[in-house]
Amino acid sequence: MSVPQASLPPDHGVLRFLTCGSVDDGKSTLIGRLLYDTKAVLADALHAIERTSRQRGLAEMDLSLLTDGLQAEREQGITIDVAYRYFSTGTRNFIIGDAPGHEQYTRNMVTAASTADLAIILVDARKGVLTQTRRHSYIAHLLGIHHLIVAVNKMDLVGYDQSVFARIEADYRDFAARLGIGDVRFIPLSALTGEMVVERGERLNWYQGPTLIEILENAPAAHTERAEPFRFPVQYVCRPRASADPELHDYRGFMGRVESGQIAVGDIVTVLPSGRQSRVCAIQVGGVDRPLAIHEESVTLLLADEIDCSRGDMIVKADEAPSPVREIDAFLCWLSETPLSPARTYLLRHTTREVKARTARIDYRLDLNTLEQGTATTLDMNDIAHLRLKLAAPIFPDPYADNRATGAFILIDESTNNTIGAGMIG
Amino acid sequence: MFERISTSDSLGGHDSHTSRSLAPYAHKPARTQARPGERHARLSRSPVQALGISHPRTLSHLDWLESDAIHILREVAGQCANPVLLFSGGKDSICLLRLAEKAFRPGPFPFPLLHIDTGHNYPEVIAFRDRRAAELGERLIVRSVENSIARGSVVLRHPGESRNRHQSVTLLEAVEEFGFDACIGGARRDEEKSRAKERIMSFRDAFGQWDPKNQRPELWNLYNARAHQGEHIRAFPISDWTELDVWQYIQREGLELPSIYYAHPRRVVRDKGLLRPVTDLTPARPGDRVEEVRVRFRTVGDITCTAPVESEADTVEKILAETAVTTITERGATRMDDQTSEASMEERKRAGYF
Ligand SMILES: Nc1nc2c(ncn2[C@@H]2O[C@H](COP(=O)(O)OP(=O)(O)O)[C@@H](O)[C@H]2O)c(=O)[nH]1
């Protein structure tokens, strides 16, 4: 259906990232700066914030107003929840997950981090690495974000002093090594004046590295850094039931998204949980054939044999199938105002599969400030714990550290239908 | 490009700075699972890879957005018993139809199409709507605000009032009439500030109300579209698309649009920075200076409150060129009723507006 376009600039797809920082570290200003300097802010939005800045008696335009959220929050003067922002550099599209830094909003950061490939951790140059910095880094790491950028902001307020930056970098490296955080970059900047965000500016010449936007443009895309096994949770089965049409008479298309790995026509696959094997005889999008599909592509698979397969099943390659488990050990972030009740049965959603789950035991609850493990018999909103769940039927997970799509699950309270827990297997 | 700062075993624990690793996944592996290494040791290369046939390592941004939207559409189809797709004849919902084709063909759509007709439409849009539904061979349901007015469920403050806000009543009546448990719409988060926090699957109570404080967290791509009887979900598959993405997709897919999206001559009045079209429904007022200007519409909606922008762009390519350097957000330029209050969209959403 698509017409290939010649002479277009290279397209590096979409990068999703998360910004985190304590209150007043300059997160809103930084996001505003990114949007403003990449020309993602349009005239009427600018006029609105110019007007507001003037009303508030500010000397300069307050870019943080660009990311202002809902009315109720504006009245309270705080941001809750996750807001998503968009900008493009022409070669790459960016989706920012913007979660507030308040201590009590762990769940928002967990939510924003769950879909991010990279996190920007904001540090105020005057304050250095804080408890909040550690907490945010830990959560980003727990949520499987492999690339962190430590942005040392407000360099203008410390006279653009290299030694301040170097000290923060050393402090952070020390802590990151203990966390097992792999890939970190450090960048000095001023969100207010824009230095090293999109433009290099003049006053940070001692810093030789790339600007923030250059780091973002060149950061590795998800799924590109190592070979991953093929995972295809079935979302929907297409049976046109067009009896009169010989082509479609027996059509059974298994629809889903390639969560990881890739698949080609001719590959031998196993359908889980049945364990039945078959061969991929066609890969289609909108009824049009293609030879293969890669990670993140939504396609329809047709199999050579008539096999039972429905929503909740998973198609994998025959030689790299995960094993069934009826008990999982996992990190769980509690999202609900109603505490976890170990006596209750919840619904667990893993890929497209739903099973009943009950707490077998809570190993420990994490104190996110000290990262100490403490005992717990229940979990409150924003708690993160490690626990064991017993399942009423098997699921086929990978460890979250290996595969986010097949290592993650949510818990649902069937009485309210709310999403109450976010889990990472491992 | 990212430096590795830990030279020790990736799970930490051997670092000289500490006796205890803080790494989250460093504890013993789950008893019930194989160690990751064992499981993935046999990772094979697919035949195509082995043959060295090149393929893209990442999807282009349009392919990624398309794939994401298809995934969301299929989640609605997989989780909801009786969904419906809102089709207005506007460009965003035209994209939704193409996405639904890619998601569900060669099968039929697992949902009918629904248009909430304000009765204040440009005839080109209605003709287009009917033709497109017929081409697709899908069922189109039309419910009109006129009927809600006749029934007494919509009361206009004055006869010429914009019917945009009243669409929500008619929509809820249709939801109840057909028992829909999910309405798929083409809203985008970049349209307006108050939408930036909107969920992809947004929960509405039995009164169709949206409560910003009572929305479900959305993690990974594990969407929760569950609803009790009488409640429903609004699903927004192109939440993460920008206006530019939409136009690029229209171009790439060669999608046909109602003609009013392209530059055409139209009689308008310049009014507070906006162009007010002169139509049967919105005749010139005393003292108006009516001019003929070349314009195009950036959204199609209620005639009484949808303003065109001055433009010479009569092809998708020209519109794209304009959009890339455009200086006014879509709604700011064209929705006369939005100008009253920055928060007006949020107020309408609370009341069940789409
Ligand atoms: N001098 C200076 N001030 C900054 C910088 N970044 C942000 N600020 C100011 O710090 C305050 C808090 O910024 P804001 O973006 O609202 O912080 P948030 O709470 O993290 O979103 C505001 O007054 C900003 O103008 C910077 O780089 N330099």
At a glance:
The complex is a heterodimer of chains A (426) and B (354). Chain A is of the alpha+beta class. Chain A has helices at 27-37, 43-55, 71-76, 106-114, 131-142, 162-179, 212-218, 404-407, and strands spanning 14-20, 83-88, 93-98, 118-124, 147-153, 183-188, 231-238, 253-257, 262-264, 268-272, 276-285, 288-290, 292-294, 298-303, 314-317, 325-334, 345-350, 353-367, 372-374, 384-395, 408-413, 418-425.
What does this structure look like?
The complex is a heterodimer of chains A (426) and B (354). Chain A has 426 residues and is of the alpha+beta class. Chain A folds into 3 domains: 12-217, P-loop containing nucleotide triphosphate hydrolases (Rossmann fold); 231-317, Elongation Factor Tu (Ef-tu), domain 3 (Beta Barrel), CATH 2.40.30.10; 325-425, Translation factors (Elongation Factor Tu (Ef-tu), domain 3, Beta Barrel), CATH 2.40.30.10. Chain A contains 8 helices and 22 strands. Chain A has a 6-stranded mixed sheet with strand order 2-3-1-4-5-6, with helices on both faces. A 6-stranded antiparallel β-barrel of chain A has the order 7-8-14-11-10-15. In chain A, β5, α6 and β6 form a beta-alpha-beta unit. The relative contact order of chain A is 0.11. With 354 residues, chain B is an alpha/beta fold. Chain B is built from 11 helices and 10 strands. A 6-stranded mixed sheet of chain B has the order 3-2-1-4-6-5, with helices on both faces. In chain B, strands 8-7-9-10 form a 4-stranded antiparallel sheet, with no helix packed on it. In chain B, α4 links the parallel β1 and β2. Residues 1-19, 28-56 and 337-348 of chain B have low confidence and may be disordered. Chains A and B meet through α2, β2, β3, α4 and α5 of A and α1, α2, α3, α4 and α8 of B. The structure holds guanosine-5'-diphosphate. The site of guanosine-5'-diphosphate has 16 residues of chain A, from α1.
